[in-house]
Amino acid sequence: MNNLKVSFMSLGMATSLFVSGVVSAGVIKIDETAFNPDAGSITFSEFATMTVNPTYNPADYGGVGSTIVSFGGFFDGQRLGVAGECPIGAALTGCVVGSPVGSLALDPNSPNTFITTDSANPTSPVLSGSPTFNGAISILFSTDQAGVGLEGGYFDAIGGTAITAFDRNGNVIGSVQNEALGIEFLGLVTEDKVSSIAGIQFSLVGSEPAGFAIDNLHFGFGSQIVGPTPVPEPGTLALLGLGIAGLGLSRKKRIQK
What we know:
Elements: H1 2-24, E1 27-30, E2 40-42, E3 55-56, H2 58-61, E4 69-72, E5 79-80, E6 96-97, E7 114-116, E8 126-128, E9 137-145, E10 147-155, E11 161-166, E12 172-177, E13 182-190, E14 197-204, E15 213-220, H3 234-256
Helix pairs in contact: 1-3
């Protein structure tokens, strides 16, 4: 009986780790097709070029609900990095350091974002940080979202740019980096599809020689996103298998007695 009890405990521990791995860790990368037609969508053609730090109400982007979307350089508690703090090759104007403080809010003293044309982007206009095509861009949502994505580029280096998601308290939820050259859609959804993304930041995490901007922003709640099914880590599967195997072994011993 003790062997059987130990095996059930092992199975329970393995199952617990499997469940916690699904609900706790970060984000899953998704593509543009994951967003349903009723998800929020901003193309930056809604306002005139050179509009600074645009603020979008639902009526401005044809959305339903009450989500207001605001733009700026970085969040309260952050600043631009200096030499030695940023990755080698990253323009200091696009490198942000520090953690947001308090309830997530855009720093009104951070560099501006603005709508501009971009000959390298076929769906121009785009939103740029300051200076043009070389500044960080931060996005604040008035209501928490489950998933957010945007087209970034034009990329001339792989892995040099990322979007990072923050919760309402300024904690990092997760991030994804660009994996291609040119224009690439960078999207993420919380692993449990719970709406906990209060804002995202598009900034440099490595070298990007030709600069960057964003276009075609998508955002939505869990019901507006067809996200991938979380896959447990190989180690978790192995542990779960050991628990099941142990259960079978103890049953066999009990029968032999």
